[in-house]
Write a structure and sequence with these properties.
The complex is a heterodimer of chains A (about 375) and B (about 180).
Chain A (H helix, E strand, L loop, with lengths): L6 H40 L3 H25 L2 H23 L4 H33 L8 H53 L4 H41 L6 H11 L6 H17 L3 H27 L8 H43 L12
Helix pairs in contact in A: 2-3, 2-5, 4-5, 6-7, 6-9, 6-10, 7-8, 8-9
Chain B lengths: L2 H6 L9 H6 L9 H10 L1 E5 L4 E3 L7 E7 L2 E6 L5 E7 L4 E2 L13 E4 L3 E7 H10 L1 H31 L11
Antiparallel strand pairs in B: 1-8, 2-7, 3-6, 3-8, 4-5, 4-7
Helix pairs in contact in B: 4-5
Classes of the chains: A mainly alpha (about 375), B alpha+beta (about 180).
């Protein structure tokens, strides 16, 4: 009953402290280990979803203006999405029935058979080159470059051989998942964004909404521009290569288009397989030089630099070469080849977001109440 | 009643809906019921406590507010920080509509006088509706134009009055 500390109470104090500390450490360890298992589960559960979600986002950004056009007349978003889907299915069926289906799978199989041949020929060519070089620069002999290149080639070949059957199985599920995800992204993305914004406190709500509107507009513009650029480059390279006798023209077009997402080095990477195949199959004749022209002059200089980039992509998204390299390296660490390709666009997205926020804050000097530290 | 519960247990029938409420506002009087239904998804419902600042003088304005329930006081602040009440607004009154067309700093301060539910309509959403629902946006902006013209005329009349009778104190427009 007394308020004075009893001897027992005094004694128990270190004991209580000990128990509390032990419990804290134990629960901390449990939490930490369970968190890492939860993170593991999360990683396993979402591992296959990265590509479908990425593709659905791309489809969503591309189709959104079209859906908007329909929505203006139909006044119903769901109906408009279905209308756009129906239109797309009709167009694709028409195209396929007119041109005839592109035999992607057969092409891939053939390429897999041809791949070692191309590499062997390329290595042979480089070997000769290095032999000639060794005569002139004896110092090079220390490096044994051809052996290193053979090693790289075998590694890349191994990756491709391993990845294709797995991705072939995955393509089936992509055809199901991508339209489904895109449908929901198209229909509900705005509602999701609104409910997220509504979480902002009253005092900052207007600012959050304004910045969100600016950033999302810029980002949609940028992403749509990048995707359209890749598509157009890919189709133009395909068309240009189809005029020659080269095989795998559609595949090479796709590679060139996707590689074009990387600034500075992307176009060169996209060029290499085409030039390699041309060199091995066609030799250095007029066709090889035409292919070279298609890649460099028509696709890159004329189309990309003079037409597509000024129209589609704003200068805001230009990244410093150092950031490009960092983005590629970090993306590659995280998600492999896919990460390397989307690392740079994601870095651009971050840059655009930061610039927009800064622009907003400097253009309208924020009032005393809203400025940080004074609320 | 608590605005949270009054939102959930809305009166059945059209009269209780937000769309109907918006239709009673002068700015949206030209809108058809189906357009009001779209407008319902454009606006943001925000709940405020007693004495909360909706916006303060000097904030960047990005839209207007309509009072769904509760009361809001509009103040002008002087250099010493003293407040000069300009108006007390009630249900179905609106304020801040000048920011809807122009991103300028607010010239007054709005504070709630009791727990209040506000319907916010913001520039970003109006711009969106111009692309998505041009007919609705045109009617809405015409309504806004009407409101702003009325305010401008009132200000002009008052200015004239002021010129003829300089000894009368100038009444400042609340928004």
């Amino acid at each position: 009953m007394s308020l004075l500390p009893t001897p027992g109470g005094m004694l128990s104090k270190p004991l209580v402290l000990f128990i509390v500390l032990t419990a804290a450490i134990a629960s901390g360890i449990t939490l930490f280990s369970s968190a890492s298992t939860i993170a593991d589960w999360f990683k396993t559960a979402t591992s296959g979803l990265f590509l479908p979600i990425l593709l659905s986002l791309i489809v969503t950004f591309l189709l959104d203006p079209l859906v908007l056009r329909f929505e203006r007349h139909l006044h119903n978003r769901t109906l408009s999405i279905f209308a756009v889907y129906a239109l797309l299915i009709i167009i694709i069926t028409l195209l396929v029935s007119l041109i005839g289906p592109v035999d992607w799978k057969g092409m891939l199989d053939a390429l897999r058979a041809d791949f070692p041949r191309y590499f062997a020929r390329a290595l042979e060519y480089f070997n000769q080159l290095f032999l000639r070089l060794h005569d002139q620069i004896p110092y090079l002999e220390n490096y044994n470059i051809p052996a290193k290149m053979r090693q790289w080639a075998e590694e890349i070949l191994g990756i491709i051989l391993l990845a294709t059957p797995r991705s072939a199985m995955r393509i089936g599920s992509l055809f199901l998942l991508v339209p489904l995800f895109s449908f929901f992204f198209l229909r509900d993305s705005q509602r999701i964004a609104r409910s997220l914004i509504s979480l902002a406190p009253n005092r900052y709500f207007e600012m959050v909404l304004d910045i969100y509107a600016h950033v999302s507009w810029q980002l949609a513009h940028f992403i749509r521009g990048r995707i359209l650029e890749a598509l157009i480059i890919g189709v133009v390279v395909w068309m240009g290569l189809s005029l020659t006798d080269i095989r795998y023209a559609p595949l090479l077009g796709a590679v060139a288009g996707i590689a074009n997402l990387l600034p500075y080095i992307g176009p060169i990477i996209g060029m290499i397989p085409g030039l390699l195949i041309a060199l091995v199959d066609l030799g250095t004749g007029p066709q090889f030089w035409w292919i070279f022209c298609v890649y460099l002059l028509i696709a890159q200089v004329l189309l990309d630099n003079f037409i597509l980039i000024p129209i589609l992509i704003s200068r805001v998204s230009n990244l410093h070469p150092l950031w490009v390299i960092l983005a590629i390296v970090m993306g590659g660490k995280l998600y492999g080849v896919l990460g390397m390709i989307i690392g740079v666009p994601i870095a651009s997205i971050i840059k655009i977001t930061l610039l927009e926020v800064r622009h907003y804050r400097s253009n309208f000097s924020l009032s005393r109440d809203i400025a940080p530290g004074r609320d | 009643m608590n605005p949270f519960w009054s939102n959930i247990f809305r009166k059945p029938g059209y009269e209780g809906t937000l769309a109907y409420f918006l239709g009673t506002i002068a700015m949206f009087s030209e809108l058809s019921p189906s357009e009001l239904k779209i407008l319902e998804n454009l606006v943001h419902l925000r709940n405020y406590d007693l004495g909360e600042t909706v916006f303060a003088e000097g904030d960047i304005g990005s839209g207007m507010y309509i009072i769904r329930s509760g009361r809001v006081r509009i103040d002008l602040k002087d250099d010493q920080g003293g407040e000069h009440p300009q108006a007390e607004l009630e249900t179905a009154d609106f304020f801040g509509e000048m920011a809807l067309s122009l991103p300028k700093q607010r010239i007054v301060t709005a504070t709630t006088m009791e727990p209040t539910v506000l319907v916010g309509l913001f520039r970003a959403d109006v711009n969106d509706s111009v692309r998505k629902h041009p007919a609705l946006a045109a009617k809405m902006l015409l309504g806004l134009n009407k409101v702003l013209s009325e305010r401008l005329q009132q200000a002009a009349l008052r200015h004239r009055e002021h010129l003829h009778l300089p000894q009368e104190p100038v009444q400042t427009d609340p928004t």
